[in-house]
Amino acid sequence: NVAAVGRERVPLWGRDAAHIAALAQERENARFLPGLRLAEAVAPTDSLSAVHAAEIVLCAAPAQAVRSVVKAASPHLRAGTAFVICAKGIEQGTRAFMSEVVAEEAPQVEVAVLSGPSFAADVCKGLPTAVTVAANSEARAQWLAEQLSSRSFRLYRSQDVRGVEIGGAVKNVLAIACGMASGRGLGASAGAALIARGFAELTRLGAAWGARTETLMGLSGLGDLVLTCGSNQSRNFALGEALGRGEALSEARHGKLAEGSFTASALMEIARERSVEMPISQSVAEILAGRIDVEAAIEALLMRPLRAEG
Ligand SMILES: NC(=O)C1=CN([C@@H]2O[C@H](COP(=O)(O)OP(=O)(O)OC[C@H]3O[C@@H](n4cnc5c(N)ncnc54)[C@H](O)[C@@H]3O)[C@@H](O)[C@H]2O)C=CC1
Ligand SMILES: O=C(CO)COP(=O)(O)O
């Protein structure tokens, strides 16, 4: 809907023809965003060829599906199209960041990343939100910020593509840990400690990839971490909370997408490769893999050797 502000027609592609037809008819997505109407200009379509005419394409598929979607869209994408990744995650198996996936599958486009604290429902209701858009060139990032900003949806520009995608991927894993602490009833102080120590992990990983401190401390890093770790409106937090209450992983998802649960293992692999210590994220990955339970993970974190802060 934000992309529709000031535009006459914005195609919205989805893979499920029946769902797209229902969306076009009802002008509401009752499952994901109940009660929120699609903007007039949004034109649902099940034809990927719609991307051909676009100057800007926003890709909001789940991270593990981005490669297949981009591969299918690639023949229709023109050279120089601004391809804006909205997914937050790292690809399992290849351990690739989303910008790498897009560069491999559609080398003709100009990749950008949009990320930051923004629950879809808040954005759709027109509540004030601010996020970061990163592109390799300053001019491209500025142009995208101008094209996509509205009064309530403010875009800050950046050239730190990797820093922005690291923040989005890591905060989801950390939100699962914060949810677990909440589900276990560990209290608000423990939640704050997890956010601060989690941010130290995010910063260490970012530094290993040359991310800028301003990026990690900005909207797409600390900003999104605070949002996602502090509200069970977050699906990652809600998954952790359910696990913390003792639900099995198979039930705890409640049919919702929790990106951190798919990114955790790949995150641990890239952290290990670059010798980055990430004990909280590691605990989440091990719990999700069924190697330890929540109680054992808490015990292990509390018994870690005392060290200097940093
Ligand atoms: N919902 C939110 O508040 C925000 C979500 N994001 C990110 O956007 C990405 C997508 O999240 P949501 O839209 O919330 O998820 P969602 O679960 O609400 O919707 C995902 C959509 O992708 C479709 N899909 C799933 N697999 C697909 C495939 N293989 N090919 C094509 N389509 C496929 C589903 O049918 C569904 O329509 C995630 O990476 C998430 O982290 C980013 C910012 C905010
Ligand atoms: O990324 C988000 C908000 O910025 C959405 O968080 P969840 O995917 O955990 O719901």
From TrEMBL:
Which residues does the annotation say bind NADPH? R15, K88, A120, R235, L257, E259
Q: Which residues form the active site?
A: K171
Q: Which reaction does it catalyse?
A: sn-glycerol 3-phosphate + NAD(+) = dihydroxyacetone phosphate + NADH + H(+); sn-glycerol 3-phosphate + NADP(+) = dihydroxyacetone phosphate + NADPH + H(+)
Q: In which pathway does it act?
A: Membrane lipid metabolism; glycerophospholipid metabolism
Which keywords does UniProt give here?
Cytoplasm, Lipid biosynthesis, Lipid metabolism, NAD, NADP, Nucleotide-binding, Oxidoreductase, Phospholipid biosynthesis, Phospholipid metabolism, Signal
Name a GO CC annotation attached to this entry.
Answer: cytosol
Q: Where in the cell is it found?
A: Cytoplasm
Where does this protein hold NAD(+)? A120, R235, K256
Q: In the Enzyme Commission scheme, what number(s) does this protein have? A: 1.1.1.94
List residues binding substrate. Answer: K88, R235, N236
Q: Where does the Glycerol-3-phosphate dehydrogenase NAD-dependent N-terminal domain lie?
A: 1-139
Tell me the residue numbers annotated for binding sn-glycerol 3-phosphate: K88, G116, S118, K171, D224, S234, R235, N236
* SUPFAM superfamilies, A to Z: 6-phosphogluconate dehydrogenase C-terminal domain-like (SSF48179), NAD(P)-binding Rossmann-fold domains (SSF51735)
Which Gene Ontology terms cover its molecular function? glycerol-3-phosphate dehydrogenase (NAD+) activity; glycerol-3-phosphate dehydrogenase (NADP+) activity; NAD binding
Q: What is its main location?
A: cytoplasm
Q: What class of enzyme is it?
A: oxidoreductase
Record's function text: Catalyzes the reduction of the glycolytic intermediate dihydroxyacetone phosphate (DHAP) to sn-glycerol 3-phosphate (G3P), the key precursor for phospholipid synthesis.
Q: Which family does it belong to?
A: Belongs to the NAD-dependent glycerol-3-phosphate dehydrogenase family.
UniProt name for this protein: Glycerol-3-phosphate dehydrogenase [NAD(P)+]
Which organism does this record belong to? Methylocystis bryophila
